[in-house]
Design a protein that fits this description.
Layout (H helix, E strand, L loop, with lengths): L33 E2 L8 E5 L23 E2 L2 E2 L4 E2 L19 E19 L10 E7 L7 H4 L7 E8 L5 E5 L5 E10 L3 E2 L1 E8 L3 H7 L2 E2 L8 E5 L23 E2 L9 E19 L10 E7 L7 E8 L5 E20 L3 E2 L1 E8 L1 H11 L5
Antiparallel strand pairs: 1-12, 2-6, 3-4, 5-11, 6-9, 6-10, 6-12, 7-8, 7-10, 13-21, 14-16, 15-20, 16-19, 16-21, 17-18, 17-19
Length: about 375
């Protein structure tokens, strides 16, 4: 894997103008994966030992952190992140924190899965960021309380060992643990502030839950679907089309640039596992003057099989949910959405159930070490 650029030390004090002008970042090889800690998937920061200056929930807010140099509150500077108070030593003779002193936050992933990379973003924390961070992961069934997560019964796996980080920087770490996780423990040594946490990986859903549901959306992010490729990501990512819920803004869907040729745009998906699709929905919510004109949907069964059209090229209306019941179920492992000639789609839903082969494959993945 390509080495990831790392950052250490303070960033210069804010000097006015664009606060991101001197922000330190790098290209991370894992960010094409789903952010498993996305609040829109149901992720949450369930507990923290300290949040004196800034609330723990800010860690998972969508979008980059904001900075208002003139905004102060009763406890000090108002920061868009999680910030703890300054740690002190035990006595006047040793006023410095002990080496093992640290602050922590417990994060419930929005969708359990295998983590491939983590970004600990210290944007706008210039001289008040942690000296180092570490991250651990665990797989705990159900909806455990903070007390249960902190008990000796939970086995935590180190994902990121204690590593120095820089202020006002995106600190990225590749993760190779390879096990299914439901919760993370983010540690900052000895104290300080972190703006955002991003956890990139592949969703591994609970096969028992999907079996109990019967029919479900077999391409949805939370159920293990994912985007493999797309012709165009100019205005917004193709992965938006399989997010939970209905879109509530134009940029919460997928929109391509305007084509000036005779081609068309497309997205290719991998389903949760082999599935039998019975119905589908194409939604153009909030895409009014820029929705796709027509759309078609195809499936294929396996990486090398040919594509089979299940919805022929069909006229789309702006800002509308289009629903189609298939004349007979379609079996596949992949799907493709083609839009003509360009434009936007906010959501694609493929409703069906796993085949016996698909259910067995998902169960085997769920049973993998630590799953």
């Amino acid at each position: 894997m390509t080495a990831i650029e790392s950052f250490t030390g303070d960033a210069p004090p804010y000097g006015g103008g664009d606060p991101y002008a001197d922000y330190r970042t790098a290209v991370f090889p894992f960010t094409h994966h789903t952010d498993l800690a996305d609040r829109r998937l149901g992720a949450g920061v369930v507990a923290a030992n300290d949040e004196f200056f800034a609330q723990r929930e800010n860690l998972l807010l969508p979008g980059r952190a904001e900075f208002d140099p003139g905004r102060f509150g009763h406890k000090g500077k108002t920061m868009d992140g999680w910030e703890t108070r300054r740690r002190r030593g035990a006595c006047a003779g040793h006023p410095w924190p002990a080496d093992e002193d640290h602050d922590w936050a417990l994060i419930r992933l929005g969708a359990p899965g295998v983590v491939h990379g983590i970004v600990v973003d210290t944007a706008h924390f210039r001289g008040n960021h942690p000296q180092a961070v570490s991250v651990e992961g665990a797989s705990v069934a159900g909806s455990p309380s903070p007390r249960e997560l902190l008990s000796d019964d939970v086995e935590w796996t180190t994902l990121v060992p204690r590593t120095p980080v820089g202020g006002h920087a995106a600190n990225g770490f590749a993760v190779t643990a390879g096990r299914r996780l439901t919760h993370l423990r983010l540690n900052q040594h000895p104290d300080g502030g972190i703006a955002r946490l991003r956890v990139y990986g592949e969703v591994v859903p609970d096969p028992a839950w999907l079996a109990a549901l019967g029919a479900f959306d077999v391409v949805a992010l939370e159920n293990g679907g994912r985007v493999e490729d797309a012709s165009d990501r100019f205005y917004s990512p193709a992965s938006h089309t399989i997010r939970p819920g209905r879109s509530h803004r134009m940029d919460d869907g997928w929109e391509t640039r305007r084509r000036r040729d005779r081609g068309h745009d497309w997205i290719r998906y991998r389903l949760a596992a082999q599935a039998r699709i019975r119905a589908l929905e194409i939604d153009t919510a909030y895409l009014k003057g820029n929705s796709a004109g027509w759309a078609a949907v195809s499936v294929r069964d396996g990486d090398t099989a040919g594509w089979r059209e299940i919805l022929p090229r069909t006229r789309l209306q702006p800002d509308t949910a289009h629903r189609f019941v298939l004349p007979k179920p379609a079996v596949g492992t992949h799907a493709r959405l083609d839009v003509f000639p360009d434009g936007g789609v906010s959501r694609l839903r493929l409703f069906g159930a796993l085949t016996e082969r698909g259910a067995a494959a998902l169960a085997a993945r769920h049973r993998a070490p630590g799953g």
